[in-house]
Amino acid sequence: MNDSPDTKPARDYRGTVFLPQTSFPMRGDLPKREPQWLARWETEGQWAKLREAGKSRPPFVLHDGPPYANGPLHIGHALNKILKDVLNRAAQMAGFDADYIPGWDCHGLPIEWKVEEEYRAKKKNKDEVPVLEFRAECRAYAQKWLDFQTEEFKRLGVAGDFAQRYATMDFPSEAVIAGEIGRFLLNGSLYRGLRPVMWSPVEKTALAEAEIEYADHVSPMLWARFRVAEGALGGASLVAWTTTPWTIPANRALAVNPELDYALVHVNGSDGLFQAGERIVVSFKLLPDFAAATGLGAHDVVRLLKGEELVGLSCRHPFAGQFPDSDLYETPRPVLAGDFVTDEAGTGIVHLAPDHGEDDFNLCRAHGISAIESLNDDGTYAEKMTGVAGLHVFKAHDRVWALCEAAGTLLAKGKLSHSYPHSWRSKKPVIFRATPQWFIAMEDGNAIRAKALDAIAATRFIPEVGRNRIVGMVATRPDWCISRQRAWGVPIAVFVEKRTGEVLRDEAVMRRIVEAFRSEGADAWYHPDAAARFLGNERNPDDYEQVMDIVDVWFESGSTHAFVLEARGMPWPADLYLEGSDQHRGWFQSSLLEAVGTRGVAPFKSVLTHGFVLDEGGRKMSKSLGNVTAPQEVISKYGADILRLWVMNSDTAEDLRIGKTILEQQAELYRRLRNSLRWILGGLAGFTEAERVPVAEMPELERWVLHRLSELDARVRGAVASHDWSGVVPELHGFCATDLSAFWFDIRKDALYCDGADSLRRRAVRTVLDHLHRCLCAWLAPVLVFTAEEAWRARFGEEAESIHLQLFPDLPAEWRDEALAAKWARIRELRREVTGVIEAARASGQVGSSLQAAPALALPEADRALLDEEGWAEVSITSGFRLETGETPSARFAPAPGAKCERCWRVLPEVSDAHGLCLRCEAVVQP
């Protein structure tokens, strides 16, 4: 269609509009750009600059719990280190000196196990390799993975003193660990004793509780007769039930609860292995369950007995009479009172094997009944165990059943699927086994348990539920078994006098050991002349046993406060320990017990725990299920900032979920944050201090944005103080997406693009954009470490000082205006009435843009003073507006009269026919 002769062609006013200008691209391209920032920070010496900047500030110390140097990082490592890094960076930017020393746990069974696997693959026997050669291979293996993990942590954006990192295998660390053992030795808390501990027959070593995991296991069951030898119940049998028939050979007594009711039962018929006319004793409450489980038929309850009536009886071992030449099974088994016996399952009668249970051991010891050390290191019965010698405990149930059947004491047998303790390394079942071990006493004159409970009471826990967890564990835990029967670690460097069996407590000997370890490492203990060297000229080494057990790795990591904080002159105790919730029984507890046992107080002021990482369906990650999310793959596809955003968008106090869908969601959230930063940067092009508008002269809308910044500032600073960042990043995202992009940006783009350069409104907008840029870059810097740096230097230039060297902006108190916030909350609520009718008009085709509308809004008298009609048009992004009176708020659509301004696109009656411009745009274009 041809234009008529009278139609004038539209002028192009794009050159007169202040369009956004920024070098900050829309696409993050993080996998490519992030390594470039890492290289640049390394070149600039950013860590040294951070430490220099923090010299005069109050210190903040988050002490790093050491990950294990064994394999690539998994998603749990990423969660842990990112959370630590965010807290450290935020503390630094909040005005603290947040030094951070990353560390590694390098000793112990997992590494030893891997080196042994390499030996087995070469058909070599580890026991034939000289111990110093074996330890050297373990050290090399740990160093390889320590170096590997260092680079992976750096790629996550984690900032720390990696050049001065700590490792438990460093010579100074080994010296301090030996010295800490010496402290317990000299204060009398360290002793060697025989008592049951968790034992791995596969790994041939004692295990700590933190090294145990539970998995389904099928256990054989045994109901056995213990015949009463004499007295009123002579000829009757007490029936004990066990899911560990292999412990029967080590039985030494029985236990009943004096307060429970027991039934003396007369068996009427020969059902299964029951004999007509026999009498048995079981819990009265459990009798129906017992009958169903064992096939007991017709029977009568002769009488009820209290458990206290059974105490003091003597019974015969179930194998009695089978091996008359052995005394092992022929001595009477006393019935003891045990308050741990319940009537929840079984028979209410517990067979006691002090070799194989904590309660068994303690009760027997209290009655002068000792453990007999029935097993070898590999889980086979010792030679003295008549009838079962050489059998492995997990293959012994058939033999035990057979011996009981031959003796007439087998009442029933079966199998039970239940949760059972396994070694978390070998994934094999473990046992309780009494062996001579080294312990730290919880209840001696050092009163470690009481001190630990007092220290817990003085500690802040985030979340608070962590306090109850660790209290329960410390209150009931047995003495701390710190010995392990392996080679790769710090030895329990003590001597025992052979004649007396007494441990040598000599400060001079201990000092010589520590000094040697500091320069030569713990290998010094394994040299042939070590005993003579450390004992000195005044003692004959032939008179002493040199202990070769190594110390539990939990003791080592529990000592890190001594060789990382104290030895380096850092503040002690640390402000914060931060690990997964499983560390209440692991590192938190070992650190607590080690510190209170040597210094009387906890090594931390606060303890923060996070959950575990599950897949999107809430399942534990497993290679066999194919649901593992590897951090390396996430970084390769999305970038580390997306992984960091996922951590900080989650409620880390609970278990976290991750997977493809969740990561795509995080990528979308990141895109919105990035777009907000890009919009801000685009609107700030060319901003100078001459444009800055004082707060008092700003329009209300800009002062409302500043109020929101003051609220977020308080939220961020509160998170720094409490160490609790839950919800902070979602709030920052919500601010960007809802308050800015969907509201303030949308409203103010007209003023920013079309107002005159010297317009007060436009200058106010750009002043607020300046504050937004400084605040958001700073607040996001601890989380989006790469993106915040990019957004910062995109404005201030490539040579500008890093955002990570800035402090959080100090916002004026005058920005906080609760009354203004309440007013604008009401305006936004009423605005939704208007936008609703405009959206309906757009959907029906009446308008294509809100600028083609001039709606009416009826308001009650109380709301009439909120804004005038021009103000409502501005916040509704319409070209006109009409206020009306009504009892309740309601809006109606009306089209805007006039013509469309060719520059700002508002529809106004004033648009000039000559230039196609409204009065505002005409004044800007033709000043």
UniProtKB/TrEMBL annotation:
Cofactor: Zn(2+)
UniProt keyword Ligase, yes or no: yes
Reactions it catalyzes: tRNA(Ile) + L-isoleucine + ATP = L-isoleucyl-tRNA(Ile) + AMP + diphosphate
Transmembrane segments annotated in the record for this chain: none
Binding site for L-isoleucyl-5'-AMP: 579
Co-factor: note: Binds 1 zinc ion per subunit.
One Gene Ontology molecular-function label: isoleucine-tRNA ligase activity
Motif ('KMSKS' region): 620-624
Subcellular location: Cytoplasm
Gene3D superfamilies xrefs: 1.10.730.20, HUPs, Valyl/Leucyl/Isoleucyl-tRNA synthetase, editing domain
Main location: cytoplasm
Chain positions of motif 'HIGH' region: 67-77
Enzyme Commission numbers on file: 6.1.1.5
Residue span, Aminoacyl-tRNA synthetase class Ia domain: 36-658
Key words, A-Z: Aminoacyl-tRNA synthetase, ATP-binding, Cytoplasm, Ligase, Metal-binding, Nucleotide-binding, Protein biosynthesis, Zinc
UniProt binding sites for ATP: 623
Domain Methionyl/Valyl/Leucyl/Isoleucyl-tRNA synthetase anticodon-binding: 702-852
CDD domains reported in the protein's UniProt record: Anticodon_Ia_Ile_BEm (cd07960)
Chain positions recorded as Zn(2+) binding sites: 901, 904, 918, 921
Protein function: Catalyzes the attachment of isoleucine to tRNA(Ile). As IleRS can inadvertently accommodate and process structurally similar amino acids such as valine, to avoid such errors it has two additional distinct tRNA(Ile)-dependent editing activities. One activity is designated as 'pretransfer' editing and involves the hydrolysis of activated Val-AMP. The other activity is designated 'posttransfer' editing and involves deacylation of mischarged Val-tRNA(Ile).
Protein family per UniProt: Belongs to the class-I aminoacyl-tRNA synthetase family. IleS type 1 subfamily.
Complex and partners: Monomer.
Domain-level remarks: IleRS has two distinct active sites: one for aminoacylation and one for editing. The misactivated valine is translocated from the active site to the editing site, which sterically excludes the correctly activated isoleucine. The single editing site contains two valyl binding pockets, one specific for each substrate (Val-AMP or Val-tRNA(Ile)).
Protein name in the entry: Isoleucine--tRNA ligase
Native organism: Sabulicella glaciei
Organism lineage: Bacteria, Pseudomonadati, Pseudomonadota, Alphaproteobacteria, Acetobacterales
